[in-house]
Fold this protein.
Amino acid sequence: MRITVNRKAHFNAAHRLHRKDWDDETNEQVFGKCSNPNYHGHNYELVVAVTGNIDEETGFVMNLKDLKKLIYDKIEVPFDHKNLNVEVPEFKELNPTAENIAVVIWEKLRKELASHLDLEVTLFETPRNFVTYKGE
Ligand code: NI
């Protein structure tokens, strides 16, 4: 029996969508307001879903106290109140779209979780725009 536990988290961050190898006009055309050279912010909402079997001893898929700490240490501390383009090394050469941020979050968490657990990450950039990634 596989069952999924979810943990919500939140961070505020600034970003700019931009390709250095494109001229300003092309960046503006593709990324619109999100290419503003002065950056802009989002209130990101994160849902981390971990799927596995219920441990017979604990009754848990995983201890949510551990998942909370993992998300805090690996995602919230490095991302919250940061300029993603400037201050987060993963986005130095990678456009910080919601898609790419979700993949980076998934990769950071995946390596910390036991291999028998499945991981899915949902990232809301706005209340209406969100992406999901499960490593496929
Ligand atoms: Ni944006």
Summary: The domain at 2-12+41-133 is CATH 3.30.479.10 (Tetrahydropterin Synthase; Chain A).
